[in-house]
Amino acid sequence: MSYSDRVVDHYENPRNVGYFDKSDKAIGTGLVGAPACGDVMKLQIKVKDDIIKDAKFKTFGCGSAIAASSLLTEWVKGKSLKQATEIKNTEIVEYLSLPPVKIHCSVLAEDAIKAAISPANTPYLFFMKNKKGLHDFTTSFKKHRKNIKKAR
């Protein structure tokens, strides 16, 4: 199997390898894996004012998985959280010219950014957004709690 120059470049010179201090409240972490091949991808994003200011990754897997992770960290920097969730694996496949047997690596990258942005993995980010009125999970929770009590 032959890899594109872009895959080789991101594999041999991966960008943004590393990790942030997980106790930093501005950090969102996504950890995903592919049981079929054993690839594991950890993606961390640093967010300020709904914008991804920085991104880092640690990936254990094949060259395509490392390349997809590296590329993703470059693509998400400077994007809003909403824009980052709109990145599709098909865009990664196309840009890196991944062969069909390596498409799962691009799926991991898409899943990783969605996991890093998920309220379950970044509760502080969503709490801060609540203060700005963009998301109000507290109100939502209170509404659901009232509905649950009514249903009893």
Task: Write up what this structure looks like.
- With 152 residues, the protein is α+β, with helices and mostly antiparallel strands.
- It has a single domain, classed as Sufe protein. Chain: A, CATH 3.90.1010.10.
- It has helices at residues 5-12, 63-76, 81-85, 89-96, 103-117, 123-132, 137-151, and strands at residues 27-34, 39-48, 51-60.
- Strands 1-2-3 form a three-stranded antiparallel β-sheet, with helices on one face.
- α1 (5-12) crosses α2, α2 packs across α5 and α4 (89-96) packs across α5.
- The longest helix is centred in the C-terminal third of the chain and has 15 residues, at 103-117.
- The radius of gyration is 17 Å and the shape is globular.
What can be said about this structure in brief?
This protein is an alpha+beta fold and 152 residues long.
Strand percentage lies at: 15-25%
| Range of helix content | 40-55%
CATH topology: the name is: Sufe protein. Chain: A
Query: For the largest beta sheet, what order do the strands appear in spatially?
Result: 1-2-3
User: N- to C-terminal separation?
Assistant: 60 Å
Under CATH at level 1, the class stands as Alpha Beta
